[in-house]
Amino acid sequence: MTVKKLLGNQPSQVSRNRDLGTLAFQNSDGAFVENLGGYLDGRIGINGLTRPDIRPSFICDFVGTKKLNGKMRFERYSRAMYYDGSPPVMAENNFLWYSQDFNYMQGTNNNENKEGHWRWGRNGLNDFGSGSVADATTAPDGTTTADLITENTANTYHQIWQLGYGHTDYWPYLTESIYCFSVYVKSYSADRFVKILIASDYIRFVYIVVNPANGAIVQPYNQSYSFDYNTVVLNGGVTSVGSGWYRVWIAMQGHWENVTIDLLNNTTGSGPVSWSTADYYGRHRYTGNGTSGVYLWGAQMEMGVTTPRAYNYTFDQKVLNWQPILKTADPHQHRIDHNPITMECKGLLMEREVTNNLRESQAFHKTPWTKTNCSIVEPYTGRLLISGTTMNPDGSFSHNYLQEDSTASAAHGISQTVSSGVNDGYSQVLSVYAKAKERTFIRLSTVCTRQTCNVWFDLVNGKVGTETVTVSSTTYNNQQLRYRTEIIPVGNGWYRCSLLFFNSGGTSITVSINLATGDNISTYTGGSAAGVYIWGAQCEQMGNGNYNYEAPLASSYIPTSYRRQARSQEYCYIRGLDTPERGNWLNQQEGTLLIEASNFNDYYGDMLCLSNTRADTMLYDGGTYFRFRKYANDYELNVGGQEHYWDGRALTSAPGSIYSNHPDLRYANFNKIFKAGFSFKTNDVSFTVNGEQPTNIKKWESKVRFNFISIGSLYKWETLCGNGYIRKFIYYSKKITDNELAALTSVDYRD
Questions:
Q1: CB atoms within 10 A of CB 461
Q2: I need a labelling partner for 43 at 20 to 30 A (CA). Which of 224, 281, 563, 597 fits?
Q3: Secondary structure of the chain: what % helix, strand, coil (to 5)?
Q4: Beta strands in 472-544 (DSSP E)
Q5: Is 623 found in the same domain as 604?
Q6: Highest mean pLDDT: which of 31-35, 118-122, 726-730?
Q7: Is residue 334 situated within a structural domain?
Q8: Are residues 556 and 613 in the same domain?
Q9: What's the DSSP call for residue 738?
């Protein structure tokens, strides 16, 4: 064997010999730039089966290249959501230590001082215990945790600060990031202003000056005269949170060295707050009276925002939460989906048309939702401004806190009745994203004519709890009344909880999302301000009573407002295979097509079709075609030829269908990767899945030319399509042997 030099040097050119049977390289468009050929060890597949020694004429590795081949087209007429593999973003964060324990200062409490933890420094202030007081008054969250800092009698500047040097992950001068510093202040003596400041270097800083007696901005957010290092003020402001407390903030772009809270003398009315009265470092000196001061609570330094988000308490550790973000694909934009936790690429996501039948799927405070012994609290108002809200799975902030009231021995939750788009005798899936807060369990409930389901979900351990089903009859129209549950982590404590149930005997169902104090608890006496976070509720119709229960449940999330919203069918295809502009690259006399997929969950799930015409008419025009699909709980290769259409006749007839009646494939776990392939030439058609010995049809002949391949669905055939991931599509321009076909479709889960 002669090893040739690889043509090209792009990072996307990666070895694919294990998958293709030859040592070859693929660029980002899926075209092969070099084939080394030869009989290699890579030709020996699983169970000793031999892979072909020719290279494919066409390959699209959606997992490897994360893009479509240039010959492919993709259609979807609506937006759709997915995880695109981007790194997680910073969610809740507070880079300051001891965020409300200002008595933990440098030079005091040395026994508590830990390496790398920067405490509050001070100058011109009274010590705690001799003027300044820890836990002096009621804080904005109702606890007695707010500190009083008072000035001493020195002629100096009177301030408290925390350095940023200890934040080695962002120091020194790594990026020109956006930072927002905020703190809660309350007046103690009417003769003092408060200035909060972010310094990026000695004379490079941004600041805002506020009167804590009334929250008035004495000096709007501003910055020092030096613009070195691109330190730029972005925003600043004051928000009243009640009981005389104000949240003051300043935001900047640059790097930060320290944050500072200054007391300023305003006995002259305006106070020495102008730049001309400050020293080189922006500090204002005056002689303190030994008693004046201010109440402080809840300091926070956030990254990536220009207005403060919910406050996060810290002591001897920072808060630094990261969260994958659910992205939105525009119409006709394909989705290469990823696992949000592991970032593993799943492949090309293909889904049929489905409708979210719930209205206001994110605005739980609005009318379609009925609140029972609970409320939906708006973020940034009232208590949640203090105790925290959280980032939604899509990176937004909204009405996502479901809070119980104090009603005794009652259920606490929200519900909505669905009467549009609900058909009798079909499976439905209720799903919602949920995250634990004071409560760590939720209960999903569905009520239809003959079946009531209640399922508890553990939002701390990510497990399904008790499942209870009450039915008036175990069957309906000879179909078993089934249900199934699922909980999937999506990052930062969020889980998507799903319940599949069978709608029997009616066209209206009621679904509810309930709080629970533990597993299998439906009613209880509500506590004080306890709840969970919820977002993105969905109720979708999936299939009939023979639905495959080994597959994933909820499809990708569809946001709704005042009306139901649909996600349209998706199509991925190649057409014009026999035209000069396409290069006539398809061999019309023989060939082999392979597909690798996973997570196909529909009752009739088409994955691959080769035909002579548009797939929306091929079943009626006597066309020639091959159509591979998941059929009920099995697979089949549906074959048309000799100008006949498929009519489901037995294998002895032509045309007909080849069924994969292998016991280990029936009721398979479709979450795992599977591979299927078929090869053809006149009177010799072979088909197999997962390396089983191929099944054959010996009577077949093509009367017309192939010119269309669809992947993941039948083009424009909306009711016959797949739901799942296409990982790879490969085409050989010759019919390979049955042994080679079995080798190429063998699944090795060590890959």
A1: 10
A2: 597
A3: 5, 45, 50
A4: 475-476, 479-480, 483-491, 494-503, 509-516, 531-544
A5: yes
A6: 726-730
A7: no
A8: no
A9: H
